[in-house]
Amino acid sequence: MKTKPKIVVIGGGSGQPIILKGLKQYDADLTAVITVADDGGSSGTLRHYLDIIPPGDVRNVMAVMSNVSQDIIDVFQYRFKKEDEMLAGHALGNLIIAAMAEKENDIFRGVQILSHLMNVEGQIYPVANEPLVLHAEFTDGTVLSGEAEITAAHKVIDHIWVTPQENSGHAEAQAPSEVINAILNADEIVLGPGSLYTSVLPNLVIPNVREALKLTPAKITYIANIMTQKGETDNYTEADHVRAINEHVGCRVIDSVIMNTGEVPENYIDWQRWNEVSHQVASDPEEVRREGAVPIVGDLLQLRDDGAFHDGDTVAKLIMKIVDEKKIKN
């Protein structure tokens, strides 16, 4: 009997749903592990008032992994207008996730029940059952807490870590057993794409996640970002991203790196709209090899909305190729 390959996609932000949407076309057992350190926008407001994990990234992943009609997805993703006073800026799906968390008195269980109602194909796991606080120490020795503040500082980050909120009663951040088991039982683990220090690494520095990544027999693939980010990864090469991940985990865990060869046209980006990006990431496959990872290159570029994004279908094809090659070797 043919078994589906188990693929775990770890991240957050806008990049993760793009990859999951591409992978959904294949016969694979998908698990999304999602950061819970966001504290901006609608998610940050609900997190603050209701003391729940930020729901925005969970909502966007659920929308692409769901098999309900597009009409239902459109309602789920609907965002109230800015003149709607207390509801201004909130996505309906964020409110539904918040309601499920309160109803079940457990955000993780609430997400699982809602996933069933939304006919999600695969698993959606918040990386922790409580909101986490992101901390960063910069190269100048200063320290800031909170994702929004860290991003807004536009300073060079040395390293990050996460802690539970002060009122949680927990001394250390911890991922649920479902997350750890998914990592340990995976055939392929995919990291990114997304903000290195605020979407990808906040998942990986949770102590039991970090240990699971060291122990898993799965191949670990990093999808390199197309653009650098102001204050986070200015002047970073693809190898710099890989090095930062390995250093935060504590050993070389990245087996392969999916790297873009397509060139972003010089005058295409609307820098005012996409004001968090700086310039295209410098590509050096040999430098990536020196970090112990195999470079997998291709034109992954999708130009849309005056910005540069990954083509989810092309990336998914490369991920499935890695999975198939592992099967052949085994």
From TrEMBL:
HAMAP family: Gluconeogen_factor. Belongs to the gluconeogenesis factor family. One of its GO terms (biological process) is regulation of cell shape. It holds the Pfam family CofD. GO terms for cellular component: cytoplasm. This is Putative gluconeogenesis factor. Required for morphogenesis under gluconeogenic growth conditions. Keywords: Cytoplasm. The lineage of its organism: Bacteria, Bacillati, Bacillota, Bacilli, Lactobacillales. It comes from the Bacteria. It is found in: Cytoplasm. InterPro entries: CofD, CofD-like_dom_sf, Gluconeogen_factor. One of its GO terms (molecular function) is LPPG:FO 2-phospho-L-lactate transferase activity.
